[in-house]
Amino acid sequence: MNPKTLMIQGTTSDAGKSVMVAGLCRLLARRGVRVVPFKPQNMALNSAVTVDGGEIGRAQAVQAQAAFLEPHTDMNPVLLKPNTDIGAQVIIQGRALANMDARRYHDYKPIAMQAVLDSYQRLSAAYDMVLVEGAGSPAEINLRNNDIANMGFAEAVNCPVWLVSDIDRGGVFAHLYGTLALLAESERARVTGLIINRFRGDVSLLTPGLDWLTRETGKPVLGVLPYLKGLHLEAEDALPCESAVAKDSERLRVAVPVMARISNHTDFDPLRLHPQVEVIWVRAGESIPTVDLMILPGSKSTRGDLQRLRDQGWEEQIHRHLRYGGKLIGICGGFQMLGQWIHDPAGLEGEPGSSPGLGLLDFETTLEPEKQLRRVEGCLTQDRAFVTGYEIHAGVSAGPALAKPAIHLSDRRLDGAVSDDGQILGAYLHGLFDAASARDALLRWAGLAVRETLDYRQLREDGINRLADAIAEHLDLQFLDRLVQGDSGNRRMGAGS
What we know:
CATH superfamily of the largest domain: P-loop containing nucleotide triphosphate hydrolases
CATH class of the largest domain: Alpha Beta
Radius of gyration: 23 Å
Distance between the termini: 14 Å
Low-confidence stretches: 489-497
Largest sheet: 6 strands, parallel
Strand order of the largest sheet: 2-9-1-10-11-12
Strand content: 25-35%
CATH topology of the largest domain: Rossmann fold
Number of strands: 26
Number of helices: 14
CATH architecture of the largest domain: 3-Layer(aba) Sandwich
Helix content: 25-40%
């Protein structure tokens, strides 16, 4: 097998594939190995803009940071961004190709696979080691034909696979044993190790189970990684549930309505992690509580999510929030919702047509086929506070409200708008709260007496390092060392092969 490549697959979604690749990237990079992350196919609404002006999954940008690299489109050559229950925008090597339903995309997979292999070849030629993240589970029988995300890719490049499972979910032995049982013989043969993730408690209590697992599968258990409380790495797609930090008794309350196609909810991580801020996710069927600040997030289906917002009764609750003096921010799709109209003549996000906006700012937005992708920096109009982030949007906005912008960008463009009364702010910029100066300025604007600040990038760095340290302590690194040295691990395969 190809010793320059290692693929991490999971028994389920959210088993720990992304964090495992990030931790291994940092571990190897610390040792001087030129390592690069790679995910053949990603389905996620959290994305990032690359150094070469394309779009990839957010997790791969974090993994790039772990490897001390700038994110590049080759790290995630196929990105699927769902915009309906059965369809998604297909992004190939950073550029939006088309909207496809599931059946059409299934037929397109052989073509997508060529893009995957082209990107992989470029990375494998430029780096010592390629760490590959699978998607979902390789045991999803209905997706096996023309697979490019899991074993289909591993077979194509002939690389070894480590299989990770989350014990915190329960049923870890069934997940691992069952996944292996559902694989073809050739696929089982390339699984050279098993990893149990997020264990709480005394690991010695697992010994009988680990012995059984090795005996029954013929695969070594490479390690049992502990549950790392408070670990922060940006999520692939699922909304974070647990409170990240202890909160001050006096804090700013922030409500975020959860849209069906919410995108880039990682925008809110710097707020979730701030000790003086409480972020409240408002889900379908819930009313928006009394808060200081309300934020409308990005959306992959802006008109559809705007209609769902209305169906939930949230529009009137937004107006009530404003009447009582609350502040309102719209980010990207949420910004578009603040205007008078949203037009989608080409049907880029659903059925062609126009939808009335919330009418809070005087501008209109038209969705255009060419998506705008930029990494930008600049300053807020208020306080001239430094801001940095990225743009990912198909909308082009125009109208009188834009004469009072929210952000002055360093490339001399203007972004967003601020209402005449200073109560409403909107912008296309994702990452609005990443830079401490901009975040503190916006929190003060929303009414918070800021006593503490947060270095968000350092927090992410601390999380990556903490993860790498845990892997170094709890994983049998001889298996990794042998891969780096050019031995794929064939000689360790047992009877279960």
